[in-house]
């Protein structure tokens, strides 16, 4: 028989990660065969069948050899390819709650924010703002606001974010998108509007 906990341990781990603080997740860890040094930090929890605290997950966002953010980003992209928007919105809202919570906490302290952390988040903005999946789009807007408030971004990044936010507005999140654009203008340096926005 197929042993999913052995051959697909990483997929099982990231799929159930939104429930990381539950006792059931701790039990799940105890029989997952997670291989690789990037999962060494999980082994103490797995050995005692303990859940993982949110603070521990946030700390792993800054890991040099592996990042929970990178793993979560890949998982979200796979989910978006496998399922339709209605199914994801109804069945997997907790996935985007975890994504936004981790990202917001990871960038809330400017002393912890570096190019490495930003490089793990920005690709998801490009994917999320172009997505018609509202929970995902809203998550990216929230993280963008926090990032803009915490650190000063490079001018090219600011322009790219501004363009993505306004050009990819979808029905139902117009107010949130404009509010995010306002925060970006207030907290970052934006010398001019992109031509596409002016002439659209």
From TrEMBL:
In this protein, which residues make up the domain named U3 small nucleolar RNA-associated protein 10 N-terminal?
Answer: 117-197
Question: Where does it primarily localize?
Answer: nucleus
Under the heading Pfam families, the entry gives: U3snoRNP10 (PF12397)
Cellular component annotations (GO), alphabetically ordered: 90S preribosome; small-subunit processome; t-UTP complex
Q: Which residues form a coiled coil?
A: none
Q: Which GO terms describe its biological process?
A: maturation of SSU-rRNA from tricistronic rRNA transcript (SSU-rRNA, 5.8S rRNA, LSU-rRNA); positive regulation of transcription by RNA polymerase I
Cited function: Involved in nucleolar processing of pre-18S ribosomal RNA.
Q: What is this protein called?
A: HEAT repeat-containing protein 1
Q: Which organism is it from?
A: Dracunculus medinensis
